[in-house]
Design brief:
This protein has helices spanning about 25-35, 40-45, 50-65; strands at about 5-10, 20. The chain has a two-stranded antiparallel ribbon. The chain has a single domain (about 5-65), classed as Orthogonal Bundle (Arc Repressor Mutant, subunit A), CATH 1.10.10.10. Helices cover about 45% and strands about 5% of the residues. It is built from three helices and two strands. It is mainly alpha-helical and about 80 residues long.
Length: about 80
């Protein structure tokens, strides 16, 4: 399972939205890029501060949210 510790929630960062590793990269923006047709390699090439594991963690986080499973590892 991907490392959900990469997804962080801090009310002082991005209005408390889930973000990637305490950076100003909301999960929703990563999901939007992938959903709009950008490949993982393209996202990584355009944004070198991100890592493949960040994108996988965002996808896993979204999957957990829509599944109704508890999201416990996010801090």
């Amino acid at each position: 399972m991907p490392n959900l510790n990469r997804i962080t929630i801090d009310r002082d960062l991005c209005h408390g939205k889930p973000c990637v590793r305490h950076m100003r990269w909301p999960v929703e923006v990563i999901l939007y890029m992938v959903a709009s047709g950008m490949g993982v390699d393209e996202v990584l090439a355009d944004h070198p501060e991100l890592e493949r594991e960040d994108i996988v963690a965002c996808l896993q986080y979204a999957r957990l949210l829509v599944s109704g499973e508890p999201v416990r590892q996010v801090a």
